[in-house]
């Protein structure tokens, strides 16, 4: 990585802190003048000593922890005490003033806990939550106990939450994945399905902006464009760094072909997307979602299809704008009363 000019590393797993050589690896990264951006952890092994070690090295990585709903986190993780351990870890992040964020997976069981979960996390000091549908992996299919939300139910659950975000005073930045990014500034929201300008100018835009500045090296050495690709069953299209070297992978490989792919490249091979009236707004959607759902890296992102083709964009905008208007009216009246 140092030979390739990598300056920042995010560390995930598995669980990074179970490695006995964790600090040796951190020291080696620092020796090569690389810093640590994020550490993904379940929080069990976060202790005062861990924060002390980071501070000794003048490192303050962002700690990313999953929390899957009040009363449901233990079930999701399959072990008692997981919820307590996660909340303890988040409070430690606050104590040491480390940046942090939370990712929450929603399903039928915990969808009604979103509001209270956000309130709890906000009270701890969490500044950002990303809420997503559970990835439909084989592990989930075996153990989900009928809690799967189909795409329509997931979107409806996210739209249902939007007014509460403003009613509760915009407690933090919240990304409702695929639907809307709600920020603490009331009028500064983004509908996520609208990815491009809506004009032919989008044809030369890259299919995915994230892959332009980060990559993901899987545990088996597979060089993937992004972390969500790990949920795809077929990753064999992508090279392994031990087979071709990281430098070659970042210079001339199928991986780089995808990183440099443009909207026009997808439309040239995807008849469904090329014929769609929303193609200049959507650009085909997420490549990881397309690969996972269709088995085709250049397939259509069906989540985007539902959002754009079934009228959800207008609904998301209307619900959000109505909630913003009510928030602004209520707070104008409060200031007048004061």
What does this structure look like?
- The protein has 338 residues and is an alpha/beta fold.
- The chain is built from 16 helices and 10 strands.
- It has helices at residues 22-31, 48-56, 73-77, 82-95, 114-124, 138-143, 151-167, 241-244, 246-249, 254-259, 263-269, 271-274, 279-282, 287-294, 302-309, 312-337, and strands at residues 8-11, 35-41, 62-66, 100-106, 128-133, 173-176, 180-182, 190-191, 216-217, 223-224.
- The strands form 2 sheets. The protein has an 8-stranded mixed β-sheet, covered by helices on one side. It has a two-stranded antiparallel sheet with strand order 9-10.
Radius of gyration: 21 Å
Distance between the termini: 58 Å
Measured by DSSP, the beta-strand proportion falls in 5-15%
Alpha-beta classification: alpha/beta
> Which H/E pattern describes the elements?
EHEHEHHEHEHHEEEEEHHHHHHHHH
Average of the residue pLDDT scores: 94
The tally of strands reads: 10
The total of helices stands at 16
DSSP helix fraction: 40-55%
In the predicted model, the low-confidence regions spanning at least 5 consecutive residues are: none
How would a textbook summarize the main sheet? 8 strands, mixed
Strand order of the largest sheet: 1-2-3-4-5-6-7-8
Oligomeric state of the chains in view: single chain
């Amino acid at each position: 990585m140092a030979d390739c000019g990598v300056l920042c590393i995010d560390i995930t797993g598995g669980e990074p802190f179970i490695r006995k050589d964790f600090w040796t690896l951190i020291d080696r990264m620092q020796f090569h003048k690389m810093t640590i951006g994020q550490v993904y952890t379940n929080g069990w092994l976060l202790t005062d000593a861990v924060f002390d070690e980071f501070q000794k090295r003048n490192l303050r990585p962002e700690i990313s922890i999953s929390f899957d709903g009040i009363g449901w986190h233990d079930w999701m993780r399959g072990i008692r005490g997981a919820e307590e351990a996660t909340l303890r870890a988040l409070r430690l992040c606050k104590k040491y003033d480390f940046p942090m964020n939370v990712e929450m997976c929603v399903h039928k069981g915990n969808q009604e806990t979103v509001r209270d979960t956000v309130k709890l996390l906000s009270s701890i000091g969490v500044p950002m939550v990303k809420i997503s549908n559970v990835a439909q992996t084989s592990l989930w299919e075996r153990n989900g106990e009928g809690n799967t939300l189909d795409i329509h139910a997931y979107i409806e659950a996210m739209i249902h939450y939007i007014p509460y975000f403003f009613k509760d005073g915009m407690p933090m930045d919240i990304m409702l994945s695929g639907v809307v990014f709600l920020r603490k500034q009331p009028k500064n929201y983004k509908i996520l399905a609208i990815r491009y300008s809506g004009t032919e100018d989008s044809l030369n835009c890259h299919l995915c902006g994230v892959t332009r500045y980060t990559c993901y090296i899987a545990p088996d050495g597979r060089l993937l464009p992004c972390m969500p690709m790990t949920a795809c069953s077929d990753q064999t299209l992508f090279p392994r760094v031990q087979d071709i070297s990281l430098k070659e992978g970042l210079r001339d490989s199928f991986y780089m072909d995808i990183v440099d792919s443009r909207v026009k490249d997808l439309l040239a091979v995807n008849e469904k997307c090329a014929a769609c009236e929303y193609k200049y707004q959507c650009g085909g959607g997420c490549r990881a979602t397309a690969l996972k759902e269709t088995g085709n890296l250049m397939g259509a992102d069906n989540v985007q299809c539902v959002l754009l083709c079934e009228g959800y964009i207008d609904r998301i905008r209307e619900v959000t704008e109505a909630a913003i208007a009510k928030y602004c009216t209520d707070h104008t009246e409060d200031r007048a009363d004061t």
